[in-house]
Amino acid sequence: MKLPGMLLCLTTLLACTAGAQKVNLRFSTWAGGDGLALLQQLSRDYSAQNPEVQISVEVTPFADYGRKLAIQVASGDAPDVGWLAERDVPTFVSSGAVLNLSPALGKDKTFNLGDFPLSTLSLWTRGQAVYGVPFSNSPLVLFYNKDLFQKSGVKDPLLQYSQARWDYPSFQAASKVIKDKTGAFGARVMRLDPKAWAGGLLAVIWSQGGGIYDNAMKCQLNSPGSVSAFQLVSTMMFKDASMPRPGDQTDFASGRVGMYFDNLSYSAQLRDAAFKWGVAPLPKGTAGRVTQLGQAGYVVFSKSRNQAEALKFLKFLGSAQTMARTARFFPPPRVSVLKSPAYLGSNPAIPASSLKTAVAGQLSSARVLLTGTNWLRVNDAITSGLDRVFQPNADLQPVLDDLCKQIGDL
Amino acid sequence: MTPTSALSRHSSPKHGSPRHGSPKQRRQEAMAGLAFILPYALGTLVFIIGPLVAMLGISFTSWSLLDTPKYVGWANYHKLVQDREFLGSLGVTGLFTLGILALNISAALGLANLMNLRLRGISAFRTIIFSPVVMPVVAWALVWKFLLQPQGPVNSALQGLGFQGANLLFTPGTALGTVVVIEVIKSVGLNAVIFLSALQGVPKEILEAARLDGAGRTQTYTRIILPMISPTFFLVFVITLIGALKVFTPIWVLTGGGPSSATTTLLVYMYKQGFGFFDFGYASVIAAALFGLILLTTALQWNLRRRLVFYEE
User: Fold this and answer.
1) Between chains, do B276 and A376 touch, taking CB under 8 Å as contact?
2) Which of A1, A159, A403, B258 is the least buried, fewest Cβ under 10 Å from its Cβ?
3) Which residue of B has its CA nearest to A392?
């Protein structure tokens, strides 16, 4: 009787020891569709290489992402590793919620932080400290519905681009013809979530010579360039009726919108689209063809209980090999991956030539939206102000003057 | 015999009140009583009183959730007094609450009178009126958001009727009224049922007596029925008022506080400060102001109750 008892104790002890060595890492993301499936596959691959580590992928929709992370951090339930969106970087870095990665990454030759151009790291760097590794350096592109273009007899945007005719007047004209001939909306530049107005509209404003701030961080939303951009969008909404008004829920994936501005990762949501689509560069404005560079990165949370393992997992995610795999959805910040022929042929839904023209070809004129720590309040004021801008017969200049005054007061 | 007299007779010494048991028995009774209220008391302590005290404590700090709270004294309260947006949201809350009170109570009373008629198909009518009450609030708001899209069915119909450019939910002038109507359609069924039960509780003999005394329909309604149901009226008024001050979900889903802050009530403003801008100290001050407002209105109502409500002796 004694021997079986001892064996039982020994087995339990061994099982407990094995259990104690197992690390469960929580990885937070807002990915969906094929992008999420890829992240789950990467997590399984990492666990296969490191059997002592289990990764659980936690998904929160983008609209609630920053909020949920903050609550998790405050309640001591922070994930170990996660994505962080551009809009949340200033707040999370200034409050010390994310770990300084430079001691771990700076000297690691295999990781090679030098493969990231300094411009791609500027959002994540404070002095010598690096708080995140961008995995996506994605310019806005134009998604277009090839079926609607064909039905309405409008020339393909890529063809117009190759003929140097792809500008905002052509964009507006194409949108109106699609509306008149098919009844579908010709174009949508803003996302469904009104707070995410900048992803799309800002590129139009920049291309007309306007902006949110000038170099001295003074409001520029009432400058002549900004006003002309708002006028263009307003005309398309209310006069041409070719653009959905704020509050309209018609999205590009429904097949009822001819053109749409979004980051390349949006292609992951078009897997089951019942129409043919393509990507092209944004139109050219009076101040050039300026697109917005969206960034998102991997971070390790300061309150992670498994920081060493979390750092190792982050290195795996940010490595050139993994980035080559995620590049299919997220344009890679690593130069070595961006320039590789494998990258350009990585997404079967988008031809290499389109990817080269719409993404790689636009990076030189792309801009990152640089904001301060009060961006959340400024964005709320602008979102609220746009409700007055996008009204039929709105007198834009006084409304935008007032908006700039409000932003100045913040 | 009134319920009160029945109770006093039952607890008279003749019938052996527990007060006259042995000390041990009394202790056991007290313990049993405490055990019965313990779950509720603990729940109130942990989920209501605890957060309330914490909220008051946080209101004296600057805290972004991501960092540790820093004591800032009365700074958040000073900011509140000078905050024009807070005053704006107070105004929106006042209009929203008045709108809900007026529309909900009058519609509920009207519907209760209709439901009180003995007509064919009245059960189906009652079911239709009550069914929105049991619908999940987010689903309800999303359906309305779809119906009220700028070129959706409701606005298109209004444009067809000659209201050029009608865009109810996204025009600052009409958004608040639209949200009030949507909220009233959702919740009016409950008040209507409460009024219906009160109407059905009015004794037939009194109505008969009034008729014999020569009272007309209007007189019977205003002089007999309304005073008879005034306790119910008061109850409906109180729960509708407090409910209106606490409405958040449909507003957040339908408009997010827009357009141009036209539907930013105190609760929406508080949520934006806390979860939108991560300023939990200031959000707690707004919560404290809202708490004070509800406390004040409730106290006022209880004082007015004796003067306005008729209780049958």
Assistant:
1) yes
2) A1
3) B165
Could you tell me the residue range of the domain that residue B192 belongs to?
79-308
DSSP A265: G
Is B137 inside any structural domain?
yes
From the list B65, B66, B146, the residue facing A249 with the nearest CB is B146
Residue-wise pLDDT tens digits, A288-340: 999 988 889 999 999 999 999 999 999 999 999 999 999 888 888 898 888 78
What are the boundaries of each domain within chain A? 22-138+294-353, 139-293+367-409
> Nearest Cα to A318, choosing from A46, A77, A66?
A46
Which CATH number applies to A22-138+294-353?
3.40.190.10
C-alpha distance from B261 to closest chain A C-alpha (Å): 7
Residue A387 has its nearest CB partner, among B66, B152, B259, at: B259
* B257 vs A contacts (CB less than 8 Å): 384
Specify the pLDDT at position B154: 92
Number of domains observed in the structure of chain B? 1
Residue B180 neighbours by CB under 8 Å, 6+ apart:
B96, B99, B100, B103
Mutation for testing the A interface, residue in B58, B61, B62, B65 having most A CBs under 10 Å: B65
Q: Topology of A139-293+367-409 in CATH?
A: D-Maltodextrin-Binding Protein; domain 2 (3.40.190)
Render pLDDT for B261-289 as a digit per residue (tens, 0 to 9): 899 999 999 999 998 888 999 999 999 99
Alpha-carbon distance of A283 to A276, in angstroms, equals 20
